[in-house]
Amino acid sequence: MNLERKAQDPLLVCTCNDLYIEDIREAIEFGEDEYREIFAVLEVQPRCGECVCHVNQLVSELS
């Protein structure tokens, strides 16, 4: 996770895969609510795992 880059762009969720809040929102709207399934729908693999909390927070807020 590139914390400096994430701090510069609050919409960025995962710096490893360049995923933004809108990307996560689309996966949630598709019906996913699990971290790994969200990444699978977006056709990327989780890498460092530093974004798990942020993704889970978005799931709580958006579902």
Automatic annotation (TrEMBL):
Pfam families: Fer2_BFD (PF04324)
Domain of life, per lineage: Bacteria
BFD-like [2Fe-2S]-binding domain span: 12-60
Protein name (record): BFD-like [2Fe-2S]-binding domain-containing protein
